[in-house]
Amino acid sequence: MLDKLREGFQNAVNRLVGSATVDEKEIKEFVRDIQRTLLSGDVDVATVKSLSEKIEKRALEEKPPPGLPRKDHIVKILYEEFVKILGEGGKLDLPTNRPNVILVVGIQGSGKTTTIGKLGRLLAKRGYRVGVIAGDTFRPGAITQLKTICSDINVPVFSIDNEKNSVKVVKAGAHYFREQNANVIIVDTAGRHKEEKGLLDEMKQISDAVSPDFTFLVLDGTIGKAAFGQAAAFHRAVPVGGIIMTKLDGAAKGGGALAATAATGARIFFIGTGERVDDLETFNPTRFVGRLLGMGDLQSLLERARDLENAADEKQIKRMMSGKLTMNDFLAQIEQVKKFGSLKKILEAVPGFSQANVSTENIEEIEGKMQYWRAMIQAMTPPEREDPELLNSQRIKRIARGTGVPERDVKDLLTRYRQAKSVMKASKGRQFRTMMKQMNRQQ
Ligand SMILES: Nc1nc2c(ncn2[C@@H]2O[C@H](COP(=O)(O)OP(=O)(O)OP(=O)(O)O)[C@@H](O)[C@H]2O)c(=O)[nH]1
Ligand SMILES: [Mg+2]
Question: Where are the domains of the chain?
């Protein structure tokens, strides 16, 4: 899959890793390699430009965490920017208590009918009552093809022989399946037409007639950058809710995926990886990019990067284990909590903590206060931050006034600080370490 892109990226990465030093010149060359690969993989020029600019800027400006070779850091940046442009994979959430109409559009041969079979099977397996409407009245043989596919997966098809008006068929079909109590109604449509405009008009009429809950655009993964124009044209006629990319098993260049998401802003939900009815995968951008860059190596590189990013924290842990916890360390811990989202999540993640008697109100109260802790710590002098025991009542008063909080809040902060210090000392930093690990796994 995606052999050409993968080869290009791997060559670029190998050259970077093989070079003795990494300076500005190397980085620029690496970015040029990536550009060339993307363009030869049929990614559209605008996407290539913005992507490579971002990669270059970050590669030149960002400092890798201590211990991580700069080259590895650059590969990590490459990976992160790819994942960013592809976006999250879409999730198909269909309510079961009413019929959901799914319209499937795309040009001829893109794989609509085949994909409907795959999708029908997937949804039937999830327990939906699925019905399919044969809305392709243009191509002779279309109904027979759809019926063959759907009989294999035991999904009923609605069709009207010799009826050329697709809007009529689709309306009647939707009515029929509603009566049958189906909760997913999938509409197959034509891809062939005398001209593109006629096709897009027909899609618009069908869409207006049945008001689909969801419209999938099926794109052939082998068409490369033409995907941009195609996706944009369909998107103008019928608002595209999600994309399904087919034929990513063969000689596909894969660049179409980047182009199509850029053109519509729609997410990719599934990818087709073969002609059989089971060859449909939920799209996962991380896995997709991983494949593109050669997953094995990448996975371990990302893990190493993460470990090293935490190594800085390890130093802090060592200091805390020896019983020294400065206010700066304490502040760093608070920042970690912010990064993770909420204190509640952390407490849930750490086995030891989750059993402790911390009520929800208590957590919310602490979270509320934490917002002010930062300001209070910043109002302390450097010696006070090093050794908070210096804080006598006069100094506490000064900090309270400086941050606009009652003195009791400053005292409360001191109490929390002392608690954290004793927990760290007692568990020799173990608890903190477990927490960090958990947090990283969930990030
Ligand atoms: N290798 C591979 N072939 C696929 C995939 N999806 C579809 N195909 C093949 O692509 C061809 C066209 O598929 P169809 O489902 O008929 O395409 P369509 O969009 O319905 O075409 P029209 O009805 O003519 O508009 C068929 O030979 C399929 O077997 C895929 O994910 N991988
Ligand atoms: Mg078809």
Answer: 3-88, 100-283, 322-442
So what CATH class is 3-88? mainly alpha
Per-residue pLDDT tens over the stretch 351-409: 444 444 456 666 677 777 777 888 898 889 989 998 899 999 999 999 999 888 999 99
Q: In what order do the strands lie in the sheet with 184-189?
A: 157-158, 130-135, 184-189, 100-105, 214-220, 242-246, 267-272, 280-282
pLDDT digits (tens, 9 = 90+) for 271-305: 998 999 999 999 887 777 776 665 445 666 777 77
Residue carrying structure tokens 């052939």: 220
Pocket lined around ligand 1, Cβ cut-off 6 Å: 106, 108-114, 136, 139, 142, 191-192, 246-247, 249-250, 272-275, 279
What global pTM score does this model have? 0.65
Among 107, 114, 216, 223, say which to mutate for ligand 1: greatest number of ligand atoms within 8 Å of CB. 114
- Atom of ligand 1 at shortest distance to CA of 188? 20
Ligand with minimal distance to 108 CA: 1
| Amino acid at position 116, single letter | I
